[in-house]
Amino acid sequence: MRALTVWQWGLSRIRELYDWMGEKIHSPYAVPFLAGAFFIEAIFFLPVDPLLILFCIEKRNKAWLYATVATVSSVAGGVVGYYLGYGVWNLIGQKIVALISTPQRFEALCIQYKLYQNWAVLVAGFTPLPYKLVTLTAGFCKLPLLPFIVCSFIARGARFYLVGGIIYLWGETIKEYIDRYFNVLVAIFTLLVVAAFVIFK
Questions:
Q1: What proportion of the chain, given as a percentage, has pLDDT over 90?
Q2: Taking a C-beta distance cutoff of 8 angstroms, is the pair 155, 125 a contact?
Q3: Rounded Cα–Cα distance for residues 152 and 110 (Å)
Q4: Cα(138)–Cα(145) distance, rounded to whole angstroms?
Q5: When comparing pLDDT for 144 and 65, which is higher?
Q6: Who's near 64: CB < 8 A, 6+ residues apart?
Q7: What average pLDDT does the segment 156-160 reach?
Q8: Residues 44-91: pLDDT tens digits?
Q9: Is the model's pLDDT at 160 over the cut of 80?
Q10: Is-contact 155 123, C-beta < 8 A?
Q11: Are 56 and 172 in contact (CB under 8 A)?
Q12: Long-range contacts: 122-127, Cβ < 8 Å, 24+?
């Protein structure tokens, strides 16, 4: 019963955040706000896909612009995350690994990462896996930077332009669906995020 109450409280807070983000769309700082969110998402945990969906739904004529902003900002943040991983490994690398994985799993991941680095970035950048795991790990494993940037642009661009394109075509229907099944969608998104962390743990 207590767990249900906590879940309901969490849903109400998320709904308030959703409505608050909706207000930002009509602000003169809407694009910088979107860019900042996607830049931060590439370094720290911040679920921003709902933000892009909301922006595109509210202003469908700017869906392609928002997708472009999300892509460029996400890759820019990814480069920062890469250099954080590259530069601070000796200081805090082991502690970060302990939070997101195990040393054995991380070592095996680095070996596979180096063998299939392009495919790894492409797949992880497009799927619901947290992108910051990709950026930090790429730096930790000392992957070549240029292929990382190119593959990040392809993967993140494909993901965000897919979202923008779908909403550009069927925005009104999607908006009605989100309003009607908001709680269910939040639950599904939460499960996807948890599953992504379990995979890496």
A1: 15
A2: yes
A3: 18
A4: 8
A5: 65
A6: 161, 164, 168
A7: 92
A8: 766 677 788 888 888 888 999 999 999 999 999 999 988 888 887 666
A9: yes
A10: yes
A11: no
A12: 122/151, 122/154, 122/155, 123/155, 124/155, 125/151, 125/152, 125/154, 125/155, 125/156, 125/159, 126/155, 126/156, 126/158, 126/159
Q: Rounded distance, CA 40 to CA 36, Å?
A: 6
Handedness of CA 146, 149, 152, 156 (dihedral sign): negative
Sequence letter at residue 77: G
